């Protein structure tokens, strides 16, 4: 079984892990009601997605 001869330095480990950080979710705005909505999701307030109403939302 292959075993490393020397320990990887902290900077080398950090370089490898530089792309592992979480990225912010991109947020768009609903053209119907102007509320903030995650991209590629149905608007939770009005049920609007890609130019049409997908889910009928009850006014309570």
TrEMBL record:
Residues 1-23 are annotated as: Disordered. Keywords: Ribonucleoprotein, Ribosomal protein. One of its GO terms (cellular component) is large ribosomal subunit. GO terms for molecular function: structural constituent of ribosome. InterPro entries: Ribosomal_bL32, Ribosomal_bL32_bact, Ribosomal_zn-bd. Belongs to the bacterial ribosomal protein bL32 family. PANTHER family: 50S RIBOSOMAL PROTEIN L32, LARGE RIBOSOMAL SUBUNIT PROTEIN BL32. This is Large ribosomal subunit protein bL32. It comes from Allorhodopirellula heiligendammensis. The gene is rpmF.
């Amino acid at each position: 079984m292959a075993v490393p001869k020397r320990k990887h330095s902290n900077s080398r480990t950090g370089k490898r892990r530089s792309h592992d950080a979480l990225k912010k979710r991109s947020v768009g705005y609903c053209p119907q009601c102007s509320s903030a909505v995650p991209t590629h999701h149905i608007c939770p307030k009005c049920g609007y997605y890609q130019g049409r109403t997908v889910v009928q939302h009850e006014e309570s």
